[in-house]
Design brief:
- This protein is an alpha+beta fold and 312 residues long.
- It has six helices and twelve strands.
- The chain has a ten-stranded mixed beta sheet with strand order 1-9-10-11-8-3-7-6-5-4, covered by helices on one side.
Length: 312
């Protein structure tokens, strides 16, 4: 999973005394001011007002799909029974997820775990059970992870939401039927897009300023130093009013790997409000609706066309 350390900026609390915050907030304002309503459940969303921080645009499927990974994670208070071998959970999923591995999982929030690691203090770990699709299949690569405090679905061959969501619902209903969790403490949906110009013939010779919109370019857009930038990363946190307590952390930047440049747009949608199981579907649908608008807002028409969009 791509990680981009850097400053975390909430646009809604950016102070005028910070020059970079003012510039970034101003650039994002064009996208934030254009809003559109989405259908929502009464208990799963905010308390009125604009619901989308990005302009609404028609949903499409890209033939040259830049999505490297999609993850949904549902966190809940620890259930110790999951430490045992979850054979009852595996049984209804084994036809599609025949491979199994067992490993460790941090039982603390990641910032706390990272702090303990930096102090050379062992962080407490729990058990993680991973059920994967057949590794010999080239067209599907998904895994379901079940730990004492979370359930997650990861797809590294993501094609459509209509394929992803039923798999998640299958895992979730199986989990809820066996373990009877209380309200979820965190619901997250993360999209990692990796844009590799060398894999897109129509834009191979174009600069990043031709492909990515200015709010995400940082020093790349500077005419004096942009050509010398080899790597950079930044984080922006925005409210997602369509969901109570909803936010999205957009980690973006230029990455250099094996001499090849790529631009990463990693959108991590989440709410840490306690959410009943009956609200999970509506929350994920709202995050999904915003995610497509975010990506289409972030890229230029030139890159949009080069990715060969088709109606969803």
């Amino acid at each position: 999973m791509a990680r981009f350390p850097g400053s975390r900026l909430s646009l809604w609390a950016a102070r005028g005394s910070c020059g970079r915050s003012k510039v970034l907030s101003g650039c994002l304002a064009e996208g934030i001011d254009a809003r559109a309503d989405v259908e929502r459940g009464a208990d799963a969303t905010g308390d009125g007002g604009p619901l989308m921080p990005f302009p609404s645009s028609p949903r499409v499927v890209f033939k040259r799909n830049p999505l490297a990974e999609v993850i949904c994670q549902l966190r809940f208070p620890p259930i110790l029974a999951i430490s045992a071998v979850p054979s009852e959970f595996q049984a209804p999923l084994r036809d599609e997820y025949p491979e199994y591995t067992r490993g460790d999982s941090l039982v603390l929030p990641s910032p706390v775990g990272e702090l303990l690691t930096s102090l050379n203090i062992p962080a407490p770990v729990g058990v993680r059970h991973v059920f994967s699709t057949d590794s010999t299949r080239g067209d599907v690569k998904r895994e379901i992870a079940l730990s004492t405090d979370f359930l997650a679905l990861t797809d590294t061959r993501y094609k459509r939401w209509d394929y992803f969501l039923p798999e998640l619902e299958r895992a979730r209903t199986t989990f809820e039927g066996i373990y009877k969790p209380g309200p979820y403490s965190r619901i997250g949906l993360r999209y990692t897009n990796i844009i590799d110009r060398s894999a897109i013939p129509a834009v191979g010779s174009h600069s990043w300023t031709d492909l990515i919109k200015p709010p995400l370019l940082d020093a790349l857009s500077d005419p004096d130093v942009g050509g010398q930038v080899r790597e950079f990363s930044a984080n922006v946190v925005l409210d997602v009013p369509a969901v109570q307590g909803g936010k999205v952390r957009v980690s973006h930047g230029l990455r250099l790997s094996d001499g090849r440049e790529s631009f990463v747009i990693d959108a991590d949608f989440f709410t840490e409000n306690r959410s009943a199981a009956t609200h999970v579907y509506d929350i994920l649908e709202s995050f999904h609706s915003v995610s497509g608008n975010l990506f289409r807002w972030a890229i230029t028409p030139r890159l949009f066309d080069a990715l060969e969009p088709e109606p969803a």
